Amino acid sequence: MTQVDEEAALVSTFRLGDALFGIETLVVQEVVPLGRMTPVHHAPDYISGIINLRGQIVTVIDLTRKLGLEENTARTTWHILIVVWQGEHIGLKVDSVADVVSADMDDLQPLPANIRAADQKYFRGVCQAGRNLVAVLNLDTVLSEEANEITGSGR
Question: For site-directed labelling of 100, which of 29, 30, 60, 132 has its Cα 20 to 30 A away?
């Protein structure tokens, strides 16, 4: 086991298409394969549906759609990262789950200039993970906006 710098946080990484993304591991409860999901009518298009996870109803958000990325229509399997956000369990639909890496969250690099300004709010920055770059999501922004759109309220 490698020693982790006290300033660093652990980041769970996952793939959406060819890109590598991450969120702080502290909010990840578990990873489950995508199984049967019930659609939610009149929900935004990035809401894939809801699942019953051991008696708890969990809303599943398709991060590819939420982030405006190109969908891989050839894919037939996905995973769901179950995260705890503001006391609620939420599923994040991702293409695949990768490694857990150490990142200094106070020393993230800025996003590339080719990321639209409107989309930059979804990210905290970029960190190096071995030979790969990881775009670290700002889960609060992604999920706060999602909660507001579903309830129709602002915070």
Answer: 60
